[in-house]
């Protein structure tokens, strides 16, 4: 579990929930940590990478972060092309065969919902 909010504070912490023991553990991470946020999306690519996109906090985010599940480390992902508008409350899927991340909808500062 990454980030979220409690009504008065935004978080960028990481917790692991062990499905066998039904216990929570705080995860100490390294690297370039995403800003505190809520309403973001997170998907898993392969066996070792979680991808986090967007969300809201002190602004609407349109950034992409990669988290290595085995190394407990974050890195900022960037590339050519224009990123979508910052948003929260969107849906996101990872298409494994094409290694493409698809983002749909959400709310931004420009519109109540993006399409």
Automatic annotation (TrEMBL):
Keyword Repeat on entry: yes
Record keywords: Kelch repeat, Repeat
InterPro entries xref list: Kelch-typ_b-propeller
Keyword Metal-binding: no
UniProt protein name: Uncharacterized protein
Species: Guillardia theta (strain CCMP2712) (Cryptophyte)
Lineage, uppermost ranks: Eukaryota, Cryptophyceae, Pyrenomonadales, Geminigeraceae, Guillardia
């Amino acid at each position: 579990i990454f980030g979220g909010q409690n009504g008065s504070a935004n978080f960028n912490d990481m917790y692991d929930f062990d499905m066998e023991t039904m216990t929570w553990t705080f995860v100490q991470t390294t690297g370039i940590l995403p800003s505190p946020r809520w309403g973001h999306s997170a998907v898993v690519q392969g066996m070792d990478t979680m991808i986090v996109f967007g969300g809201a906090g002190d602004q609407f985010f349109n950034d992409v972060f990669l988290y290595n599940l085995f190394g407990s480390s974050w890195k900022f992902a960037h590339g050519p092309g224009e990123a979508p508008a910052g948003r929260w409350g969107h849906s996101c899927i990872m298409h494994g065969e094409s290694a493409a991340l698809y983002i749909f909808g959400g709310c931004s500062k420009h519109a109540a919902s993006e399409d």
